[in-house]
Amino acid sequence: MIETAGKPAISSTSAGISGAAGIPDGDNIVWSRAVTAT
Q1: Is 32 a residue whose pLDDT tops 50?
Q2: Region annotation Disordered: residue ranges (predicted)?
Q3: Residue 35's pLDDT is what?
Q4: Which pLDDT tens digit goes with each residue over 5-26?
């Protein structure tokens, strides 16, 4: 898996979803990690 800025690749996809939902980047990182953990 390719990592971007120290975050799992899934974060890149999650960022787009969270961004559309208006979730701040800080929260997005935590949310992305939760999704990755799941």
Answers
A1: yes
A2: 1-27
A3: 58
A4: 555 545 555 555 555 555 555 5
Identify the burial level of 29 via C-beta atoms within 10 angstroms of its C-beta, where 0-12 means exposed, 13-18 middle and 19 or more buried.
middle
Q: Which tokens belong to 36?
A: 């990755």
Amino acid 21: pLDDT: 55
Q: Three-class SS of residue 38?
A: coil
Mean pLDDT of the chain: 54
Q: Which of 37, 1, 35 is nearest to 16 (CA)?
A: 35
Distances 21 to 1, 2, 8, 16, 28 between C-alpha atoms, Å: 25, 25, 20, 9, 10
